[in-house]
Amino acid sequence: MVLRWEAAYGKAFQIQISDDAATWRTLHSTTGGSGGVQDLTGLSGSGRYIRLYATQRGTSYGYSLYEFEVYGGQLSGTRTLTASGKALDDPASSGTSGTQLITWTPHGGPNQQWQLTLNGDGGYTMVNGASKLCADVAGGATTAGAAVVQATCTGRDSQRWQLTALGAGRYSVANKNSALLLTTASAADGAQVTQQTADGSAYQQWQVV
Questions:
Q1: I want to staple 176 with a disulfide (CB 3.0 to 4.6 A). Which of 17, 132, 149, 160 is the partner?
Q2: What is the CA angle 104-93-88, rounded to 5?
Q3: What percent of the residues of the chain are helix, what percent strand, and what percent coil, each to the nearest 5?
């Protein structure tokens, strides 16, 4: 989103969203606003309402915005996720719950297709096209290194994923339960997928097409 301030700008403010205009969730918070044109990238969330909640003025005047621009970018639909040129894959189109996911050279098969559905909390469920099982973290673990598997869809937090735009069509994919990132081990076929602490590597940057 983009904020275009007049001379009277907000030094401290939050961008918040809501489903009912009563309970608000914060997408962005700053105490160092500088006015002018502020391009707030990397925000991710969904709701019926959005507001700017200002808490500190940048001048002796009030707050004045020329424009408040919001751009949608839902990723719901059938998608392929690739990191380092390899696609998130249900190995051998396994239909078994608990099978660890891998990455493999993209071939367009249903075991590399994922149905992404946006939930009210801004997270996505990801259902494999071949197995109809959900991407999940084994045992709902919150530790780095835990296997990312496919499992019967239950709606639990470990089956919800927060996609954050990094630019150039790339996203980080964070597990809602653990806040750790979807990570492939390497660029080799058959590399195992786990959740890991963010390290900025290409193995955690996913193209979603």
A1: 160
A2: 35
A3: 5, 45, 45
Residue 49 pairs in a beta bridge with: 18
pLDDT tens figures, 136-188: 999 999 999 999 999 999 999 999 999 988 877 788 999 999 999 999 999 99
Same domain, 104 and 62: no
Taking a C-beta distance cutoff of 8 angstroms, is the pair 13, 54 a contact? yes
Q: Which helix (H) or strand (E) segment is 112 a member of? A: none
Q: Which residue from 97, 107, 116 is spatially nearest to 182, judged by alpha carbons?
A: 116
Q: In this predicted structure, what is the pLDDT of residue 16?
A: 94
What CATH number is attached to the domain comprising 63?
2.60.120.260
The count of structural domains within the chain is 2
Sole residue written with tokens 């160092």: 32
CA atoms within 13 A on the CB side of 49: 11
- Per residue in 87-127, pLDDT (tens digit) is 999 999 999 999 999 999 999 999 999 999 988 777 899 99
Would you say 184 and 103 are in contact if contact means Cβ atoms under 8 Å apart? yes
Give the domain range for residue 56: 2-69
* Tokens found for residue 69: 């621009």
Q: What is the mean pLDDT of residues 75-96?
A: 95
pTM listed for this prediction: 0.68
* Cα distances (angstroms) measured from residue 175 to each of 5, 98, 112: 35, 17, 19
